[in-house]
Amino acid sequence: MAACLTAASATGLAAAAETTPGAAPAETQPIHPGHFDPLGRGPSRFTIELREVLKATLPFEDQRDFEEAKKGFIAEPSYKQIMADAGHVAWDMGSYQWLLEGKDFESINPSLQRQAVLNMAYGLYEVVPGRIYQVRGYDLANISFIKGDTGWIIFDPLTAKETARAALEFINEQLGERPVVGVVYSHSHVDHFGGVRGVVDEADVASGKVMVIAPEGFMEAAISENVFAGNAMSRRTQWQYAVLLERHPHGHVDQAIGKNVANGNTDLIPPNRLVSKDFEEITLDGVKMVFQNAPDTEAPVEMNTYFPQFKALWSSEIITGTIHNIYTIRGAAVRNAINWSKEINEALYAFGQEAEVMFASHSWPRWGNERIQEVLRAQRDTYANLNNQTLHYVNQGVTINEIHNVYEVPQSLQQQWAARSYHGDVQNNVRGVVNRFLGHYDGNPTNLIPLSPADSAPLYVEMMGGAEKILTRAQQLHDAGAYLHATEILDKLVFAEPQNQAARRLLADTFEQLGYQAESTSVRNSFLQGAFELRNGLPGGVPPRTTGPDVIRAMSTEQWLDFVAISMDPKKAEGLAFTINLVTPDNGEQYLVEMSNATLTTIKGFQMKNPDLTITVNRADLNGVMMGEASFDDLIKAGKATFDGNRTGFDQLRSILVPFTPDFEILPGTAPQQPMAPPKPFEVLQQIDLEYD
Predict the structure, then answer these.
(1) Alpha carbon distance 282, 30 (integer Å)
(2) 3 state SS of 548
(3) Above 70 in pLDDT, residue 451?
(4) Nearest to residue 480, comparing CAs of 29, 53, 108?
(5) Quick one: which of 103, 257, 319, 572 has the most CB atoms within 10 Å?
(6) Which residues contact 367 (CB under 8 A, 6 or more apart)?
(7) How far is CA 178 from the centre of its chain?
(8) Burial of 279 (C-beta count, 10 Å sphere; 0-12/13-18/19+)
(9) pLDDT tens across 487-517, in order?
(10) Cβ atoms < 10 Å from Cβ of 461
């Protein structure tokens, strides 16, 4: 039983906690007086009992992470909040101070609470005496400063300009002002480049005064990874990051790799030095850096860096204080677990045999070669085991709908904090491995063309004898701690009867307990946000995650045209047929856009001999259309665009574009009473939700 209970996943924990479905019911938890939600409830006795087992079986006596997280501390700023240029709070470390009161919170998995406390590091830390420093607790990521002969080389300048600027000001205040001579983007997620304008000026990058280094393929990956399904990802991110929950023992406590994401200006300055080789050496301002390209791991492009002068290994986000997402539940392409393991192995044998300190873009450093090799091996073996053990069972017929209940983390890894799944989740990760190799279909023809939940749920409710019987049985299951069993039948009832308040509230109560039990922040947040939306609905006007104009400018015109094709309502396009030549003289590009068979297609570098319409507009001016700041008609009036030919097809296309807003229902009956205002036609600014995990 103890082995089962130490599995690093929410659903595994919940399954281990469940009693026999027919067990005698216990008392239902009353509404909790200290909860931020008036309908919220405290942890059940089953959740509390589960916590006690975890406290007894996990290696809490191992305090090395806490010692390492404190090592090198120099100073903490006098402020807890960082304001955005727009006037709102961009960052608020003070909202998590209750985690430092020394209390044991029964509504938080004890392993997760441990991680949440470790992530409370706030201020300036020395990693290598006199040469390498980090400012931690200013954003989801750390910002690292390498002291060169004359200035700072900055690794990963955070998500927002405001937090990055504050970090640079703070280190200069503490250690003396130095110019920034270089910036390194370790990979293509926004929390590692979005704050760049807070630390450097674009003119200095353009002139070569500041070197901006990134792995080859960085710009394409930074833009393309999340554009086409960005609106759906944005809505799902609200659940993974629990944007509606208070920072509270019953709500948001941590984000596994940091406290949260800064809410400021996100920008992007293109790199002027790309790393293309597997291992490539660059010396900048007297600092020798050996870059290890490690693509297809935590990001499509990513790199580690070794500093031989300091025997220091920068492990980007490939090796941090948690097992990461192979499948991230906000939605993304499934990552390559076995390649991730192999790249860690490369780092272990290329650098890890002599490194004396390992630091990263998240979490805290590890010191001493033995300790570094221990962590490298733990994470290497965890990703390899995820891949290999999963495929072992798959090749014996275990399906994507079963693997999460079959896979077990090896006991030796369960007992290592570096192999716990705070950001990733074991059950979702192993299902991701199956999906990567075999796809979503489990081989059962029943699941080949499944009914939609709204269609299947009424059938289940009818066959189960109606809502009253389901509620009675679900309450028994809930009160017996059989939470997954309860969700199985309550979910059907809520989809069949979206306005059944008793069903919604009982499902919310059940979700809440599963959230309290979860070790993974993503799983905890999703269950707790689900409970909140079932009880309260989705507030109107929840803002989408937007990004700055730099990111729009970095999109290729082809990517934008492809997104326009996605935005088009295909049912309204039946019978439409036209061709448009698009010419952007300032960058010398040409595109042929064609509507046929209710489908819009684009090809770069071609022009139709006799198109219906030719649009000529500089790409610099097209940016305004892409950001919703101007229309094509505005550009025509200003003499910045010309339309030659019949614009009927263009106007038809514009009339059938569907604006996406991230406020759609995930559970039925939770739509906001006042929907968000949709973006303007052709606008993509609000559709891009760049990945930061």
Answers:
(1) 62
(2) coil
(3) yes
(4) 29
(5) 319
(6) 68, 71, 356, 357
(7) 33
(8) middle
(9) 999 999 999 999 999 999 999 999 999 999 9
(10) 22
Summarised one tens digit per residue, pLDDT across range 146-182 is: 999 999 999 999 999 999 999 999 999 999 999 999 9
- CB within 8 Å of 374: residues ≥ 6 apart: 416, 418
- DSSP code of 95? G
User: Which tens digits make up the pLDDT trace of 88-108?
Assistant: 999 999 999 999 999 999 999
Q: Is 371 exposed, middle or buried (0-12, 13-18, 19+ CB in 10 A)?
A: middle
Element (H, E) at 213: strand 211-215
Task: Tell me which DSSP letter residue 194 carries.
Answer: T
pLDDT at 338 (0 to 100): 97
Kind plus residue range of the DSSP H or E element containing 280: strand 279-284
- pLDDT at res. 554: 81
DSSP per-residue codes, 603-643: EET---SS-SEEEEE-HHHHHHHHTTS--HHHHHHTTSEEE
Q: Are 252 and 260 in contact (CB under 8 A)?
A: yes
Percent of the chain with pLDDT over 90: 84
| Residue among 410, 416, 487, 509 nearest 32 (CA) | 509
Q: Which residues contact 673 (CB under 8 A, 6 or more apart)?
A: 537, 540
The strand order across the sheet containing 152-155 reads: 73-75, 123-128, 132-136, 143-147, 152-155, 180-184, 211-215, 273-275
Q: Is 505 exposed, middle or buried (0-12, 13-18, 19+ CB in 10 A)?
A: middle
Could you tell me the two tokens for 416?
């290592």
Q: How many helices (H) and strands (E) in the chain?
A: 23, 21
Dist CA 596 CA 592 (whole Å) = 13
Question: How far, in Å, CA of 304 to CA of 344, rounded?
Answer: 9
Q: For 650-656, which contacts have Cβ atoms below 8 Å and span 24 or more sequence positions?
A: 650/578, 650/580, 650/613, 650/615, 652/576, 652/578, 653/564, 653/568, 653/576, 653/578, 653/595, 653/600, 654/681, 654/682, 655/572, 656/568, 656/569, 656/572, 656/573
Give the chain's end-to-end CA distance (angstroms, integer).
33
pLDDT higher than 60, residue 586: yes
**What token pair was written down for 603?**
């090809």
| Distance of alpha carbon 105 from the chain centroid | 26
pTM for this structure?
0.91
